[in-house]
Amino acid sequence: MTEDELVDYWSSQMLWAIGATPMAVLLLAPDGGVAFANDPARRLAAQLDPAPADEARLLHRLLALVPDTAWDAACGAGHWSGDVHTMAGLTVEVGVYCGRGEHEGRRFVTFNDVSARSARERELQQRHDELERTYKRLAGAQEQLLQSEKMASIGQLAAGVAHEINNPIGYVHSNLGTLREYVASLFAMIEAYGTAIASPDPAAHRDELRAQREKLDIDFILGDLPQLLDESREGIERVTRIVQDLKEFSHVGRNETMRPADLVKGLESTLNIVWNDLKYKAKVEKIYGDMPAVECHASEINQVFMNLLINAGQAIAERGVITLACGVDGEEAWVSVADTGCGIPEETLGRIFDPFYTTKPIGRGTGLGLAISYRIVEKHHGRIEVESRLGQGTTFRVVLPVRQPTA
Ligand SMILES: Nc1ncnc2c1ncn2[C@@H]1O[C@H](COP(=O)(O)OP(=O)(O)O)[C@@H](O)[C@H]1O
Ligand SMILES: [Mg+2]
Q1: Cα–Cα distance, 345 to 402 (Å, whole number)
Q2: CB within 6 Å of ligand 1 — which residues?
Q3: In the predicted structure, residue 253 carries a pLDDT above the cut 60
Q4: Which one of 5, 54, 290, 291 has the largest count of C-beta atoms within 10 Å of its C-beta?
Q5: Cβ distance 259 to 228 under 8 Å?
Q6: Residue 91 lies in a domain
Q7: Ligand 1 centre from 330 Cα, in Å?
Q8: Ligand nearest to the CA of 362
Q9: CA-CA distances (angstroms) from residue 84 to 50, 347, 364?
Q10: Could you read off the pLDDT of 301-313 as tens digits, one per residue?
């Protein structure tokens, strides 16, 4: 082949290739006009404006999609590409090519209709946004559930706590009545002594004073009075403690950072709160090992303890033992609540942490206690272990890292 023949051959090859590609291509003349447009370019141009117009004008309109800044960028770097949104609602990926060196002055533009892709992307983005919104709503609802379960359990407990408070208040009140009588007797006695001392012959009043002392029961009063005071003080302290426990228990501190806390103290104050539900049924035994302070949200962990204690009490039909234990194992601390109650059949052991799974009658069980406990412990990077024997009892063990892993 001669050189001319070769050039002809390659030119026709290239025009054929440009004609055959599904991408719209415009080759530009040195004056910037359209020198050649392939079929896809013509079709795309026609889509831009459904009103009939002559082809040269349509192609010009297609070329006008290229932003002015794209030309400068392409002349500098040789190439520019970007997405352009048309008036007809299409999204077109535009590529601008400017020749350099021996190809200086040569330019061509490619167009790729990516409307379908970008619609898919938009849809994906929408779904993603929706999922995110749903997730946030769900997280909010879960948080609310957590709070309302806690409030519901507090409601259940309130009656018991009221009784627990009423009792000491009752005897403090009656003690005050007795104390008032005692004080009256003591004043009367002091008065009698005073009169005797003021008389010319105090010794003459000895028998009379002795008789009055006996009549007023002063010796008994002197013995009983310190005891009454101690008892009353104890009663008041007990009320104070219950109120404090309740306050600590219901403390909402979810957004606070975790702090080192004394888990045994938490377990004990929670036990105080639920004591009224347990005392007639269960003897409580304690086997406490050494415990480091454990980094946690104490009020949330108390809620876990409360769920476990109430479940243990409910598992015991008549009389039984609840054993509380704690200890440390390497980097982990644990607290266990064991009961000698009904136990859990092996086939349902896998379901007890499911929300709303309950074997208790309506009003007694919500099926949320363990689900919420699980979530709380999981949030603390810990775990809850269960061991149960049907008819013999169940042990729940809460295992928490002493220090939370750093984010
Ligand atoms: N200590 C336990 N002994 C026996 N069964 C238990 C014990 N703790 C939990 N369960 C079982 O797990 C179920 C779910 O417990 P929980 O989530 O606290 O809900 P609820 O106590 O409201 O039923 C209980 O209904 C019970 O069947
Ligand atoms: Mg429960």
Answers
A1: 32
A2: 307, 311-312, 315, 339, 341-344, 352, 357-360, 365-371, 394
A3: no
A4: 291
A5: no
A6: yes
A7: 30
A8: 1
A9: 19, 61, 64
A10: 988 998 999 999 9
Residue 14 inside a domain? The answer is yes
DSSP 231: H
pLDDT of residue 88: 82
Residues 24 and 41 sit within 8 Å (Cβ to Cβ): yes
Q: Give the structural domain span for 85.
A: 3-113
Which numbered atom of ligand 1 lies nearest the CA of 337? Answer: 1
Gyration radius (Cα) of the chain, Å: 44
Q: What is the pLDDT of residue 386?
A: 97
Q: Is the pLDDT of residue 254 over 60?
A: no
* 3-state SS, residue 251: coil
How many of the other CB atoms lie within 10 Å of CB of 327? 15
Q: Which atom of ligand 1 is nearest to the CA of 342?
A: 4
End position of a domain, from candidates 94, 113, 132: 113
Q: Taking 70 as the threshold, does the pLDDT of residue 346 lie above it?
A: yes
pLDDT computed for residue 32 by the predictor: 85
Ligand 1: nearest atom to the Cα of 357: 14
User: Which of these three, 113, 128, 145, is where a domain ends?
Assistant: 113
Q: How far is the CA of 128 from the centre of ligand 1 (A)?
A: 37
More confident residue, 363 or 180: 180
Sheet with strand 91-98: strands edge to edge: 34-37, 24-28, 107-113, 91-98, 79-85
Q: What is the pLDDT of residue 76?
A: 87
Tell which atom from ligand 1 comes closest to the C-alpha of 396: 1
Does the pTM surpass 0.85? The reply is: no
- Residue of 358, 376, 388, 390 best suited for mutating to test ligand 1, as the one with most atoms within 8 Å of CB: 358
Residue 136 is assigned to a structural domain of this protein:
no
Q: Which residues contact 229 (CB under 8 A, 6 or more apart)?
A: 179
